[in-house]
């Protein structure tokens, strides 16, 4: 290709740079996996790992026996599934209605949505509202407030705008109404954008802990990330929570349990990561070219 | 497509005017309104009802008396806020942390995406992309766990390395000298890949002929980036900068909340954490709502004015 010497040197350095960057990005995850597999006798509360120090699965045993983690999984699973279903569906219906230029009051409704991006009531009024609605310690509080957001609505609206009007007109000719057009024609054509928005929403719910901080006073309603937060920040809580007797403590230590809990809770995200990648980049592009 | 939309629009506008067509239009689009309704309800309930709740910032709100029974105090909560030394501390911390993050998140992803774009080996490029934005999807809870473990004052990775070189063991997270740097660096680490991907998506849309033309004109790699790539991704840069400027009072609530402690309130306490502590934990509802309103109000003024400035300079704004 006739590269100059300068270009060749640049290219070599560039590959080297990204190789180092990748190692730096991966190391924390490697560190956690190796830490969680280490034999508690050899690790204190950290250190440097390239491979497990000794080998033991005792931390994983302890995590899977931990009732709070299992409850957290359940709460997070239900809110993620519920939130993603409700959020994706209602984002689509709202966006579809707003995407129709013929709709009376469209500008007003679009402004109502846009304004929530510019201004919000803030933390305390939102908290008092949930309290007023008697939603404390319910799934409603973990699911509904975050279900739909302006940004997603506008991204989806701009996608719906791209669907040719002729399809709708032809279906209407055959006697279809707006509901049948939406469910039979528009939704099937929008699988890609629905998957993108759905994944965005699902990751948000999976990673959410602050809804529990605000709205779950009962530990039974703690999301998984909230359980993890408690475990990570409260030193010496990890062992107590796992319900391990003192005699057993020498075999399991706090550090390995923390690392194992983090790994276990990240598995679902890592499983969907390949799909995330495909759709998120697409979503990022839609988002950056604006709604 | 565009043409047919315009004809439909024309047909409608010619038949507007009388109230009868309004009812006709509403009846015709009844199913669209039906689709709109549930989403609109959620927005009104969870976004607009809290906006109404802001009235308690002008009250001495008592949770047992409710909004109707509580005493109105005008701007008393605000004067309490502006006269409190806390206010200047949290405002300074919020703006500083945010500006540091903005400077980093603005420049580094652009440079990385330009470099990443030069990788010609397809598989290597794809693997690099997948790995550098992995941390974006990891929750702040997990990330804070990693940071806490790495910076552990007794035997965390950083202290072990430092002691190898004869350094003293330090509680980095509990030290005001280090806290802000930890926030900024960990934020860069977590989000830089994601920012890079967004720019890369924009760069990949650039017409390859432009590079070829520049090359024939004798432009080297650096000049090609400067004269071809950067102008092409300018709209994306502008949009992202507007968004971050408008969010200057969002210093990263979750991150700070998970990492800070009373030891570093002087440098790490931001408006959001303050509102949470004072408002929810200490139940000073009215006072904290006033602090939150100050933040929302400034944010709104910022985003509207930045958008206006961008439009005045002839670029496309957010709306």
Distance between the termini of chain B: 23 Å
Distance between the termini of chain A: 41 Å
The CATH topology name of the domain at 67-219 in chain A reads MetI-like fold
For the largest sheet of chain B, list the strands in their spatial order: 1-2
CATH architecture descriptor text of the domain at 67-219 in chain A: Orthogonal Bundle
Task: Specify the overall morphology of chain B.
Answer: globular
**Envelope shape of chain A:** globular
Low-confidence stretches of chain A: 243-251
- Oligomeric state of this protein: heterodimer
Radius of gyration of chain B: 26 Å
Compact summary:
With 291 residues, chain A is mainly α.
Describe what you observe in this structure.
The complex is a heterodimer of chains A (291) and B (319). Chain A has 291 residues and is an all-alpha fold. Helix content of chain A is 71%, strand content 0%. Chain A has 14 helices and no strands. In chain A, helix 3 crosses helix 7. Mean pLDDT of chain A is 86; it is low at 243-251. Chain B has 319 residues and is an all-alpha fold. Chain B has 2 domains: 2-74, no CATH class; 79-312, MetI-like fold. Chain B is 73% helix and 1% strand. Chain B has 17 helices and 2 strands. A two-stranded antiparallel sheet of chain B has the order 1-2. In chain B, helix 5 packs across helix 17, helix 6 packs parallel to helix 10 (176-203) and helix 13 runs antiparallel to helix 17 (285-312). Chain B is globular. Chain B starts with a helix and ends in a 7-residue tail after the last helix. Chains A and B meet through helix 1, helix 3, helix 4, helix 5 and helix 8 of A and helix 1, helix 2, helix 3, helix 7 and helix 8 of B.
């Amino acid at each position: 290709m006739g590269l100059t010497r300068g270009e060749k040197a640049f290219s070599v350095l560039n590959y080297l740079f990204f190789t180092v960057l990748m190692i730096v990005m991966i190391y924390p995850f490697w560190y956690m996996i190796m830490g969680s597999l280490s034999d508690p006798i050899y690790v204190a509360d950290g250190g440097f790992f390239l491979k497990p120090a000794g080998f033991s699965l005792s931390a994983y045993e302890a995590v899977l026996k931990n009732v709070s983690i299992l409850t957290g999984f359940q709460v997070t699973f239900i809110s993620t599934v519920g939130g993603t279903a409700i959020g994706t569906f209602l984002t689509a219906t709202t966006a579809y209605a707003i995407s129709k230029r013929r709709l009376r009051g469209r500008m007003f409704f679009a402004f109502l949505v846009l304004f929530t991006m510019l201004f919000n009531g803030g933390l305390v009024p939102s908290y008092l509202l949930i309290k007023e609605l008697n939603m404390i310690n319910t799934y409603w509080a973990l699911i509904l407030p975050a279900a739909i957001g302006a940004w997603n609505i506008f991204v989806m609206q701009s996608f719906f705008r791209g669907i040719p009007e002729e399809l709708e007109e032809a279906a209407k000719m055959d006697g279809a109404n707006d509901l049948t057009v939406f469910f039979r024609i528009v939704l099937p054509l929008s699988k890609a954008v629905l998957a993108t928005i759905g994944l965005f929403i699902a990751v948000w719910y999976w990673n959410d802990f602050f809804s529990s901080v605000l709205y779950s006073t009962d530990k039974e309603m703690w999301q998984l990330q909230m359980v993890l937060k408690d475990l990570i920040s409260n030193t010496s809580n990890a062992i107590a929570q796992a319900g391990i007797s003192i005699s057993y403590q020498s075999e399991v230590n706090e550090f390995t349990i923390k690392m194992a809990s983090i790994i276990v809770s990240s598995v679902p995200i890592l499983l969907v990561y390949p799909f995330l990648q495909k759709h998120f980049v697409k979503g990022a592009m839609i988002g950056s070219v604006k709604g | 497509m565009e043409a047919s939309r315009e004809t439909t629009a024309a047909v409608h506008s010619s038949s507007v005017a009388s109230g009868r067509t309004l009812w006709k239009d509403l009846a015709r689009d009844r199913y669209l309104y039906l689709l709109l309704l549930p989403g609109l309800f959620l927005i009104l309930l969870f976004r607009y009802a809290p906006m109404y709740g802001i009235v308690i910032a002008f009250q001495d709100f008592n949770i047992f008396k409710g909004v109707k029974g509580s005493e109105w105090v005008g701007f008393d909560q605000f004067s309490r806020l502006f006269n409190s030394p806390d206010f200047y501390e949290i405002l300074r911390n919020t703006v500083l942390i945010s500006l540091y993050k903005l400077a980093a998140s603005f420049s580094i992803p652009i440079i990385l995406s330009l470099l990443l774009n030069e990788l010609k080996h397809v598989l290597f490029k794809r693997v690099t992309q997948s790995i550098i934005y992995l941390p974006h999807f990891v929750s702040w809870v997990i990330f804070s766990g990693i940071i806490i473990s790495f910076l552990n004052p007794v035997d965390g990775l950083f202290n072990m390395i430092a002691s190898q070189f004869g350094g003293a063991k330090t509680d980095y997270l509990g030290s005001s000298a280090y806290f802000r740097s930890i926030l900024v660096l960990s934020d860069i680490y977590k989000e830089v890949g994601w920012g890079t991907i967004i720019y890369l998506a924009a760069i990949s849309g650039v017409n390859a002929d432009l590079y070829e033309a520049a090359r024939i004109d004798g432009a080297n790699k650096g000049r090609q980036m400067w004269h071809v790539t950067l102008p092409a991704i300018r709209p994306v840069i502008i949009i992202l900068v507007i968004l971050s400027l408008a969010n200057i009072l969002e210093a990263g609530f979750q991150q700070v909340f998970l990492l800070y402690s009373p030891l570093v309130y002087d440098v790490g306490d931001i408006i959001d954490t303050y509102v949470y502590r004072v408002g929810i934990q200490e139940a000073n509802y009215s006072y904290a709502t006033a602090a939150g309103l100050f933040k929302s109000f400034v944010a709104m003024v910022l985003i509207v004015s930045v958008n206006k400035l961008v439009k005045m300079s002839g670029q496309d704004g957010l709306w």
